[in-house]
Amino acid sequence: xxxxxxxxxxxxxxxxxxxxxxxxxxxxxxxxxxxxxxxxxxxxxxxxxxxxxxxxxxxxxxxxxxxxxxxxxxxxxxxxxxxxxxxxxxxxxxxxxxxxxxxxxxxxxxxxxxxxxxxxxxxxxxxxxxxxxxxxxxxxxxxxxxxxxxxxxxxxxxxxxxxxxxxxxxxxxxxxxxxxxxxxxxxxxxxxxxxxxxxxxxxxxxxxxxxxxxxxxxxxxxxxxxxxxxxxxxxxxxxxxxxxxxxxxxxxxxxxxxxxxxxxxxxxxxxxxxxxxxxxxxxxxxxxxxxxxxxxxxxxxxxxxxxxxxxxxxxxxxxxxxxxxxxxxxxxxxxxxxxxxxxxxxxxxxxxxxxxxxxxxxxxxxxxxxxxxxxxxxxxxxxxxxxxxxxxxxxxxxxxxxxxxxxxxxxxxxxxxxxxxxxxxxxxxxxxxxxxxxxxxxxxxxxxxxxxxxxxxxxxxxxx
Length: 464
Prior knowledge:
464 residues, alpha/beta, Amidase signature (AS) enzymes, 11-stranded mixed β-sheet, 14 helices
């Protein structure tokens, strides 16, 4: 049997249920790999080794005695350090909160534990989750495992989760996405990320950046695993009013139906300017491949340039972040990441009129977009403009989320799946964008693509 750390969750679950694998061995394998690779990768801010081993022993005994909670009992997971666990430190990526002890427990964390899952540790994030490159001046920038010699961008803000899952330190993990923070690390680490619609998954107990835009989501190694974790996490929560009124989504009845007869929108020609040639080549191959599976590819005209939509998204983020963090970012003595401070402080110059105008414009453009894409099941784009770049060459005044932010702005859902590699061996990614609350369709398209390709099965050199 191969190292269990290399298996997808649906295989791990089946092996545990059949008695071929013990949660003890699975967790120990993850912890051994973490101890060996973490000094270089720096995916975690804290590893809960002792608690994880105890939980694995308890899960093993329960399962062997016929008391298995469910199919995820004994499965380990990595959790972004925005997710609060009562009594444990939740830093939110900032040195200013190194001693901040959570007084509540996130609803999504409670769901993980109730399913019998085992949290391996808390993963790194960009400070306040405000940044797509994945860097963090004070707490450390995780190392992208696809290049052993050059420190490349891990993607943010869920940088640690992306690296932990990509490097096989954990079989899957939790991220959050305000402008691309699940999809960007998924893309640059060669894995799968699902950006959910607002209200699908409770944000109670998740440190906020922009309440209008924040969405938790799964970071996994396969679409099937993303569907499993999505189903567990979704649902109404009285502690998060935005989850009310949404009927739960069941992706399983349609997941394996393929793409024959679906109408998929092609990335507009005007948006290709400035996108890396290898990214575009992989994208074009992906579109052609989905067409060969029976999908109808349709050219689509979007209401605005994606960068312009992302710009309005950025104004909403800054305004809401500043409203919550003004005391910290306005204090020059606060030990903040000096790349992040100005992003938050930009909200100080946004008037209430400008902020409310941006929200109203968002509602208008959501309607325009729905009209422009009427009859389409999804719009396909590259996830990223470039492959991961060296950390040393990052321009912190820019964002890598040129192709992701607009999805949050228009309140859509999206799935990022691996779709190739550069000549130099860096992963590339396809983004499948669906209307809000149509996660089942995004997963269906992603599953059809992924089961006919093997990009998602490739392992980073550092993880082998």
